[in-house]
What does this fold into?
Amino acid sequence: MQSISDTLLVTAHETWVEITLNRPDRLNSFNDDMHRALYAALTESRNTGMRAVLLTGAGRGFCAGQDLGDRDPSKMTEAPDLSKTLTTFYNPLVRLLKAMECPVICAVNGVAAGAGANLALACDIVIASEKAKFIQSFAKVGLVPDSGGTWTLRHLIGEARAKALALTAEPMTATQAADWGMIWKTLPEDEYLDHARALAAQFGSAPTIGLAMTKAAIQAAATNTLDEQLDLEAASQKICGQTPDYAEGVSAFLQKRAPNFTGKRS
It folds into this structure.
């Protein structure tokens, strides 16, 4: 395990990487250092061709959002410009997660609150411990859900439920989140992380180009018309059909053997 800062742990495997938020004494709430470290770790994973990313948190919680100790009004001479925090840190992070050309799995333990909840929901697949909770805590401090929260919740669970969660700041259990389709699944506390790691390893030997283009296509469907989506599917299939992994997948199927995908474009 490699620590690229005091706030983040990175474990690089051959084809996938596990990234752990590491401020357990603060429920892994974000400070500027952890923001920079996480963005750098994700960028490094993309640049080195990692074929899957697993994001999780150390200790008893996944992430409590922004560290409000850095926003204590009694220690500030003027009101903070929170838009600067979003445009500098959170928004680029969410955009990077969405742009990663590989699956990003989030394994949620304990609480995921505020921006921490929305960071988890920005990942492609969320697997949570049965003890996990998701809280849109912004209403408790007079704020609007950020880090894509107003968009993500609306698209995942619909307007009525999104408004209720955001306006009441009511905690949602992981089981309810899975039932509503907000996350993929919940598992017992002693199983969820092993399951997430096994899935990351599975993706690490999968046809990466096809998975990346599947991810991009589903994201585009949020705003595309049917005609636009049909054209996107056709364009994506053209690219995927010319990859070595497509030829290998078909050959393996016909020869009744396990495929050996490389994740390469050519």
